[in-house]
Request: fold
Amino acid sequence: MRRAFVVLPLIALTACESPSVEWTDPVALGQAGAATRLIVDTGGNAHFAAEAASPAALPTAAGLCVSSVRTAVGSAHVYAVWWSVRPDSSARLEAASSPDFGKTWGTATAVDTSDVSSNGCRRPPPAVAVVGDDLHLAYSMVAPEGTGVFFAHFMSSMLHSPVAVIYGERLVSTAIAADAERVAVAYEEPNGTRRQVDVAISSSQGHIFEWHATASRDIDMASQPAVALAGHHLAVAWTTQRTADSTSTHVVRSGQIR
Reply:
């Protein structure tokens, strides 16, 4: 699957065309635990909640990396996205839907077939978000033109060509949220040595990501991003680890998109 080449528009947009975020101060939410789904309400209040119930069964496919399967529940279907490894250890990103909460699955659709790495299943899982029955995906991959974070989405049953969010030096974890026309992708910074979590925002359903910023604090060794949207409200969270006792803590930063 060929992706749209959008690097030039990303760097050529003027400030007046790009959204901005008015951030609040980061807040520690306590020790990181099983609740990993970040939620922000229309008042800008963010918290973690338990993940939605899992489907009755996961799809099956040749080369499927079980650890990479991620699911999300839409209005009429449940969706699954995963990496399937080829014999040469490169991989295809695939998606399927189920009308009966995982009892049966439709034929898998190839989302992105252009991975050229030899990482096998040793790669970050994709991130998935559903609005109605529109499926939004963020993932990190070694593409022919370079390693990066990419975005793809299905509008109804139509797959829009993947686009690059950012290019970098290494594969990283991603998170995604969507609300109406707006899409937010949070990711571990793929360049340099500093461990931080950044966020990119699109106001055009992911066709172009106009705005990028660092969300995590300088004092954090930030990883495992999470992101949520509700109208003009954005929340980005990450996990940081204290050196003294190796305790992992969730930190969240909320903001209002202007």
Q: What stands out?
A: Residues 4-16 have pLDDT under 50 and may be disordered. The radius of gyration is 17 Å. The longest strand covers residues 134-143. The CA atoms of residues 241 and 248 lie 4 Å apart.
